[in-house]
Predict the structure.
Amino acid sequence: MKILVVDDEKDVKVLFEQRFRREVKNGEMEFVFAFSGEEAIEILKNLKHEAILILSDINMPGMSGLDLLNHIKNKYVKPPPVVMMITAYGDEENYNTAKRLGADDFLTKPLDFKLLKEKLKTMMDGKDFSSR
Amino acid sequence: MHNDFIILIVIFSILQSNEQTKTIYPLWRKYFIIALSICIILLILETSIDLIRPVTVWIALILTFFLFYLSYIRKEFLPIKSLSLALLPLVVVNLIEQATILINQSTYTAWQNYFETASSFAFIWLVAMLIISRRQRKALEKERLKAEAKEKEYQQAQFMKAELENLVVERTGELTLQKEELIHALDDLKSTQAQLIQSEKMASLGELTAGIAHEIKNPLNFVNNFAEVNNELIEEMIAEIDKGDMEEVKAIASDIKQNLEKINNHGKRADAIVKGMLEHSRTSDGEKTPTDINALSDEYLRLAYHGLRAKDKSFNATMKTDFDDSIEIINIITQDIGRVILNLITNAFYAVSHTKLSKSEEFAPTVWLKTKKTKIGIEISVKDNGNGIPSDVLDKIFQPFFTTKPTGEGTGLGLSMSYDIITNGHGGTLKVESIEGEGSIFTIVLPNKF
């Protein structure tokens, strides 16, 4: 399963690679990184027909995470990717907007990777279940 | 001529009718009236009974002289003093006449003509004296009236003076009160001004704080997570050591080292952000410190952006920076210049986000931040593609308390404080150019003399 992580912080890449070292080694998960919303859209264009999960930061210069979410849910039709939003502002407004735009989940920084791992696993199980 | 009692009657009439007698000596007035009545009775008796005349004449004469005498020594008889002088020759003539009658009737008969002439002269004297005294009295009366009028005038003047003095005291009181009120108002204004300046600082601090919260959460995210990763890596490393796979141990160790560096970097980053916040809130001590203008501009651009994002979730804009690397470190009051940059960028963001509301989806809100080294100094410019500033407003934007924002949103002090910091604080210039519908550009020029 491919996971696209979108964040303007470059160190996110190293952090995810180390945090999911085992899963990457096992081939359970494969990570792709984008450092802006615009880049994420470019990557998604090339990843058509692949089951994908997107983890996106909300606060990015230029295209924000919410813009990206809106774009994905409206224009990227098949297959509908799972989108989880991450933000440093754990406020209701962001949460509600994300939910309204169709976000599948909502996480706040600093990221709790144990929780994220569990969520990813259940989601992947759910996906497996639904595809069966 | 039987004028003896007539004279007495006149004297008593004058005495009893005198104003002073009436008011001050009412008892004396009674006596005068009684004496007057007696005189009238005696006059009637004397006229009707010729026989008693030699006696009554003497009574009248003596009484008259006595009264003359009294007029000189008793104040009750003062009103007849001038009259006594006028009557004196007449009475004296009468006395000599009567005395002559008493001594020798024949002599009297022989001298009767002389007596009559003397009597006439005495009478003329009387009339003349009366006229003179009347004149004198009139003159005196005139004087008295004059004096009274003067007195009245004086009293009126005194009264007016007192009134004026009262008025002056009153006015002085009012003026003192007004002065105190004005001093109070001035104090109020001064403290309000200080409060406003503080609230402008706090407003920009508020904008910063939200930005800072976001900016700090990012490095904290890395610090926490890399630390946890390292914990896991160390456990793995121990396991590899037990297995004896030294290559893997080395690989893990190098990962741990890299992570520790990252923890260190992000810790420093958080530290710098907090320091920046503290510097911003601290009142400027006016000391110039060596500063990297590009780093400062970049820092405040990020803070302004995240500050606005925190306030308005829908806000978004593209930031384009163009920093001139040849700019050297310059001496400036760092947090003051930071405040100016923050203010200009915040305004630019505000302008583009407002423009986005009225324009089509295609509109890309953009803010440019540019630094440039020139011959005269360093130029920092903030450009936006917002609606621009109407020309009638353009002259006023640096005035204190001028704001186009709704009440409560802006203090109207941001640009006036910025202007003051650049011109008075640093001897530089702050200029604005704006084209309606195309955008605005604010340019700070800091001269080279630092």
Notes: Residues 87 and 108 of chain A are 5 Å apart (CA to CA). Residues 113-131 of chain A form the longest helix (19 residues). The longest strand of chain A covers residues 52-57.
